[in-house]
């Protein structure tokens, strides 16, 4: 197993590394699968997406890794929060949205 690069900022990377495959000639690190440092289970990984790893931590290690899961969840709004949060009327984004809606309704 090889640790994730320091550039990977998500908290879940503290609990996962990458699979290393070895043959007679070379070692090769695969970025398609990760290994859980707690139980050595392999978890599918798609470049830049950590949801499978986060799900593994939540379901398989609920007590051990809560800090990492909480840190991710605390910054993300729910869908309901995202669509019901009002923007200040003088905000550029709110003005852009109003302009787009007016153009569509014309």
Automatic annotation (TrEMBL):
Start and end residues of each BED-type domain: 7-68
Keyword Cell wall biogenesis/degradation on entry: no
InterPro entries from the UniProt entry: Znf_BED (IPR003656), Znf_C2H2_sf (IPR036236)
Pfam families registered for this protein in UniProt: zf-BED
Zinc listed as a keyword: yes
Domain of life the protein comes from: Eukaryota
Protein name stated in the entry: BED-type domain-containing protein
Alphabetical keyword list: Metal-binding, Zinc, Zinc-finger
């Amino acid at each position: 197993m090889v640790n994730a690069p320091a550039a990977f900022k998500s908290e879940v990377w503290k609990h996962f590394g990458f699979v290393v495959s070895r043959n007679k000639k070379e070692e090769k690190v695969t970025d398609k699968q990760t290994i859980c440092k707690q139980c050595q289970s392999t978890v599918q990984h798609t470049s830049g997406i950590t949801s499978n790893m986060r799900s593994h931590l939540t379901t398989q290690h609920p007590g051990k890794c809560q800090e990492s899961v909480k840190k991710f969840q605390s910054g993300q709004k729910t869908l309901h929060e995202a669509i019901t949060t009002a923007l200040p009327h003088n905000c550029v984004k709110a003005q852009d949205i109003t302009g787009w809606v007016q153009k569509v309704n014309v």
